[in-house]
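Dear colleagues,

For the upcoming journal club I promised to circulate an example of a predicted protein-ligand complex. I picked one with adenosine monophosphate because it came up in last month's discussion. The inputs are reproduced below in full, followed by the predicted structure.
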Amino acid sequence: MSNPATLKAAILVVSTTASKDPSADSSGGVLNEVFEAEGAGKWEVTEVKIVGDEVLDIQRAITGWADKENAVNVIVSTGGTGFATHDITPEAVTPLLHKQAPGLVHGMLAASLEVTPFALMSRPVAGVRNKTLIITLPGSPKGAKENLQSILKLLPHACQQAAGADSRTLHAGGVKKLEKDAGVRASSSHQSHSHSHDHSHGHSHGHGHNHGHAMPVRHTAPDENLRSNDPALGPTRRNRSSPYPMLSVDEALKLIKQHTPAPAVVSAKVDGSLVGSVLAADVSASEAVPAYRASIVDGYAVIAPEAGASSKGTFPVASISHATPGEIPELKPGQIARITTGAPLPPGATSVVMVEDTVLKTMTDDDKEEKDVEILAEGVKDGENVREVGSDIKKGEVILRKGEEVSAMGGELGLLASVGKAEVTVYKKPIIGVLSTGDEIVEHSRPGDLRLGEVRDCNRPTILSAVRGWGFEALDLGIAKDTPGALEEILRDALRKVDVIITSGGVSMGELDLLKPTIERSLGGTIHFGRVSMKPGKPTTFATVPVKNNAGERVSKVIFSLPGNPVSAIVTFHLFVLPSLHHLSGVSPAGLPKVLATLDHDFRLDPQRAEYHRTIVMMGRDGVLHASSTGGQRSSRVGSLKSANALLCLPTGKEPLKKGDQIEALLMGKVRSEFDVL
Ligand code: AMP
Ligand code: MG
């Protein structure tokens, strides 16, 4: 049983080496000793954990300790605060902090600077999450120890405050009393540490190291650079206009191309599941087609005569070659062999004479078989009516090239099958999770009338079907409530299972719009864009989140947060998500195919934003593609999508486009034709 008066500490060792071999860690033990030996009996280390240099692992450990009831009072991490590429502890911890504690950071840095100028190479952060103080210490045992020592005496006070102790009681008696209780004293310098190991330094040399050196000065905590709202601050502190720059559609597409991870390469069986996959390597024929000399007609295999001699004459039918595997006796001069289309030529035969060029002369005694057949053809040449070995496909020839897609039409599968390819190298097709968000959203199929404020989930069934319709595997992630914790949990879980998450809703400017803050602040993701100048779909958001895959490698996963309005969601799916799915699976060109269509009527333009107008594109009797609107284009009116097979790309402008103008359209579905008969 732990004494309720003692403070609980957790130690998180961040080291990829130590996570594989715990015996490689010494900092964890050193910190434990500091708490025990120098903590004035106030501390009990209740948790120790070792994780690799992985954002999500660090975050999981910290939230595991700080987000429960009776959480630990302090979490100190050691490691990952330097400048090496794998050092990401501050980046992992910062988004978790509800309050920053720059004073502690300053105190630690000031103390270590007295020991070594290399203290500047540490990038500590400190702050409070819920009721827990979190401090990131350097990874070296010496550095970690000195940093902890420099602030240890002040920690109980900070922890009591963070845990909600009444601050008036806590501060009764003034600063002097606090200093005395904590066993620290003010000095002429700014710091109030009094660690035991370097009293010999005294404070006489002051902060000389501060003078004459140009030191980088930062006036804001890194946290302040996150653009999303901090949901903990509530509606009064939210941004009142979007802090995300407004990008053009082309700029957004460029960022998608740039930040969508490169496709993974896998080996796949040659069967129907290959349809839609793109080859990641050239495929060459391991066998020749045909594999043997085969007849291309029904007739008689013959030995072509020497030049000048006649091929006519009556010959005995010495053997029969059907298109079945097996041994065939050799054909001798003066003999012929009956042969069917596709059957192998008997050894010794050079050519085939069509049955039409022959006459049956005599039969066997039982009348059941041919005995002698007359060849009527003159001038039969070597190789006549024969498909030579490898004449369709040579052994070793490249039959399909890297980057080619296996279509449902069957041509590519047919080629692979003909040469006996059982496996090929392809780009792995991503798995896509689809999530709806919103407290008001209910299952589309929920029986009964809607209560006031309820909205049936239209986006999830639509996007799931679009994802599958484009040939990708989709996972239904359900509906998330508008609470940060719920959303974070669903997204974290989904990041383990899928390569791409598509959410809808929660990206507008309301206080319950949690997607951006959750991605940025809780998952440590990067939002590449959060606003696009287009109609519909302005708040479309594209982010990537670093995670570890099953093989332990760091990879980045993609999150698209689409607007909640059903039309915006499906339009932005086609415009932005599809190209990303194509990049991820090696499909090129990425995205919807573009055609030129002639307007069937005038179209009004928006002066500010490019519009993606739901349109029916139809091949006219004049041989030209025609575009006509599906009607009312409000982004909540999902009926405007029914029977639309294209998005007409309307530019910005003041004057309407005229009937007969030619405009680009993106094809989402089959083009109908006025030539079609019912
Ligand atoms: P939001 O961006 O969450 O504010 O959503 C914008 C609008 O879209 C609101 O009117 C939502 O009710 C609506 N909406 C959000 N998600 C869905 C959904 N899955 N199905 C239908 N409507 C939705
Ligand atoms: Mg919402």
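Two points we might discuss: The two ends are 82 Å apart (CA to CA). The first helix runs from residue 16 to 20.

See you all on Thursday,
B. R.
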